[in-house]
Amino acid sequence: MSERLYFNPSSVSTEEVIDALRAYGGDFLDDINVSALGTVIEASDDPPEVSKAINEAIDGLTSSAIESMTDNPYKDFFDKCIGAFNEYWPGPSIEDDTLKAAILDAIAKGDTD
Fold first, then answer.
1. Is residue 103 classed exposed, middle or buried when 0-12, 13-18 and 19+ CB atoms within 10 A define those classes?
2. Given pLDDT bands bounded at 50, 70 and 90, which one contains residue 12?
3. What DSSP assignment string belongs to the chain?
């Protein structure tokens, strides 16, 4: 159908396009709705509201993963790394992107002693 639309748009009816969009959109929405996001989205929902709901769900999952040791098996490791930075880094936090980058950079360089 995409080739027909590109080369001969008049050969595709509006109904065919709508049916294809519904089929594609339905699969996409089904994937979102059964995901860990915990959102229920309908094709008729307002796009900015859908975007807001998805972003809030992602932020919630991220926050939960950071705060929960069961969801984040690397928390202990990062806590130890952050503790090691304590005297060199004011107010270290696992949510500090610059600190995370410094830790990952140190890991990548390895032990040079």
1. buried
2. confident
3. -HHHHHH-GGGS-HHHHHHHHHHHHHHHHHHHHTSTT-----TTS-HHHHHHHHHHHHHHHHHHHHH-TTT-TTHHHHHHHHHHTTTTSSS--TT-HHHHHHHHHHHHH----
3-state secondary structure 61-80: HHHHHHHCCCCCCCHHHHHH
Phi-psi region of 40 (alpha: psi -120 to 50; beta: other; left: phi over 0): beta
Kindly tell me if the per-residue pLDDT of 66 is higher than 70: no
Q: What is the pLDDT of residue 71?
A: 58
pTM listed for this prediction: 0.42
